[in-house]
Design goal:
CATH superfamily of the largest domain: DD-peptidase/beta-lactamase superfamily
Largest sheet: 6 strands, mixed
CATH architecture of the largest domain: 3-Layer(aba) Sandwich
CATH class of the largest domain: Alpha Beta
Length: 573
């Protein structure tokens, strides 16, 4: 009994000592090991925020895909003996149907390697779940985000794309890169034996979900309509390229900004890098006759002409030894300013602008920002080109050519901005394509009030709009007429210059419209570069595209007819 008692005492002392050793000396190490087993750490995989159009339609998004890695030395099926290692052909037979890859090819890929064999990439969640449900040891699914563009080429010119390394290469993906990076952090969370999250040791914001999206002002419905109409016309006239813009004149929001040719950002590697730039904001051209309404507005603003005035169009004239003629070389006699726009008289415009001092005219072109970069969120926007004040003032031919929109250059975007100035009553608004980051299903309404600096008197803008309406009613813009609606416009067919030299036979055809004239809400601009054919003019090439866009715009934006509106009267003076 003494020996038994002694053994029990020694055992009890040993047990107490072991407990003391574990709970006092080894406690920190054991606690750390337990924490490691109980804590789940989730590393962020770099998902970007989505991009949506003005109605919430997805334009760009990140979708989780998976890579499938194989480690043959660990191949084992559920129910197998833990020590059994399956042959690659056994695993290949299970995966062949799910991966749509022949079993022999899969077995060949596995070969005789022990580990690190990539079997597939770009697997969607459903396929990954099916593979995971097989329960095969030795298969590893690696998640990663992939940028998708559901609208294909529709927004490629402004949104851009990510390359295979997820580095932004063009468009908003590049210019708004920081805004598109989603808020993510490493998550450390303790779980109980049944997987329930434990309330202690949770970092701040561990359950925060970033659902912000970058919302555009563009409308996918109008964008698609404009893109199809423009592409068809560019193809019909064998032109080099074309662009269409629709701008809300009250706040500068762009509903449409499309150009052709374009590319599919989902398969960008198949296209020439020259297509990755948006030429409507990066390439300069001479606007030609589409600038004439702006020049008339400047003359009215300075009081050198009156709304009811007249000008004698002699058909031709000489300025500093240089001949100036109308496009048809015809004389139109004594005509009013509305008719100057209707017949697109170059001679009439030169005689009008001669009343404006060259230095003052140049100052106005600078004030309009012809040679400065537009205040816009469009990536890559550039400034136009304007002769120096010394050249403009000392050489009379410079003022003469500027009178009918040549001798200086700007981008289509800048021209749309300047026509919005006339349409909205004299405010220079900032063109833009983004409304900002939005959360959940809440989308931002368009801005209601006019923004921008006022440069022209409202009555001046109203008179010019009435003159532009006569172009659609009686002049070269007849193709844009829409029953029940008052629409103003101006066509343009300008010579194309390169490095200061006009290219023989090369021209740029364009058309700009304001609607509805009694209370303008939108400007529509279409520009087509180098259409081929003797009958290629703004009225034949650009107007048909603008007409289709206008028809769609009236329906989508629910613009009421103008039949019951009273036509505005020209200001007296």
């Amino acid at each position: 009994m003494r020996w038994v008692f002694a053994i029990l005492c020694f055992g009890l002392i040993g047990l107490v000592g072991r407990m003391a050793w574990l709970q006092v000396l080894q406690a920190p190490e054991l606690e750390a090991r337990a924490r490691a087993l109980q804590t789940q750490r989730t590393q962020p995989i770099g998902i970007r925020r989505s991009i949506v159009d003005r109605t919430g339609r997805l334009v760009a998004l990140d979708e989780q895909h998976f890579r499938l890695w194989a480690h043959p030395r660990y191949f084992n099926f559920p129910g197998d003996d833990p020590g059994l290692i399956r042959k690659p052909i056994d695993v290949a037979s299970k995966l062949s149907g799910l991966l749509s890859i022949p079993m022999a090819e899969l077995a060949q890929r596995l070969g005789d390697r022990d580990s690190g064999v990539k079997l597939a990439e770009g697997l969607d969640i459903e396929s990954a779940d099916q593979i995971s449900n097989l329960g095969i040891s030795g298969l590893d699914l690696e998640p990663y985000p992939q940028r998708l563009y559901p609208q294909g080429s529709l927004f490629a010119n402004v949104v851009g794309f990510l390359n295979l390394d997820r580095i932004p290469q063009a468009g908003l993906e590049q210019s708004r890169h920081e805004d598109l990076l989603r808020h993510e952090q490493v998550r450390s969370m303790r779980r109980g034996a049944d997987g329930t999250p434990l309330p202690d040791d949770l970092g701040p914001g561990v359950f925060y979900g970033d659902d912000l999206r970058l919302q555009l002002t563009l409308d996918a419905r109008l964008q698609e309509l404009a893109e199809k109409a423009l592409a068809a016309q560019v193809k019909q006239w064998n032109a080099k390229k074309g662009v269409a813009i629709v701008m809300d004149v009250s706040n500068g929001e762009l509903l449409v900004l499309t150009s052709t040719p374009t590319y599919d950002p989902n398969k960008y590697w198949k296209y020439s890098p020259s297509l990755f730039r948006e030429w409507s904001v990066q390439d300069l051209y001479e606007p030609g006759s589409t600038f004439k309404p702006i020049n008339l507005a400047l003359a009215l603003q300075e009081g050198v002409i009156k709304p009811g005035g007249m000008v004698n169009d002699t058909g031709s004239m000489k300025i500093g030894g240089w001949p100036i003629t109308n496009h048809d070389r015809q004389s139109n006699g004594v005509i009013d300013y509305a008719t100057v726009l209707q017949v697109s008289s170059n001679v009439g415009m030169v005689k009008v602008m001669r009343h404006l001092k060259p230095s003052l005219y140049w100052d106005w072109l600078r004030r309009l920002g012809v040679d400065s970069r537009p205040d816009t969120d469009l990536p890559g926007a550039v400034a136009g080109q304007l002769k120096t004040k010394q050249e403009f003032v000392s050489q009379p031919i410079e003022l003469a050519t500027a009178a009918f929109g040549q001798g200086f250059s700007l981008t289509p975007l800048k021209l749309a901005q300047l026509h919005a100035l006339i349409a909205n009553g004299g405010y220079l608004v900032s063109p833009h394509i983004t409304r900002g980051l939005r959360s959940g299903e809440v989308l931002a309404p368009p801005r209601g009030a006019k923004s921008g600096h006022q440069l022209l008197r409202p009555e001046v803008a109203r008179v010019v709009r009435d003159w532009m309406e006569s172009v659609v009613e009686k002049g070269s813009g007849k193709g844009a007429k829409t029953p029940g609606y008052r629409i103003g416009g101006k066509t343009g067919t300008a010579q194309k210059a390169m490095n200061g030299i006009y290219i023989p036979g090369a021209k740029i055809c364009s058309f700009v419209a304001h609607l509805p004239v009694e209370n303008p809400r939108y400007v529509v601009l279409v520009v087509v570069d180098e259409p081929q054919g003797a009958n290629a003019y703004g009225s034949t090439v650009a107007v048909p595209v603008a007409k289709q866009i206008i028809d769609g715009l009236l329906v989508i934006e629910k613009i009421p007819p103008s039949n019951n509106q009273t036509k505005s009267q020209p200001a007296k003076g």
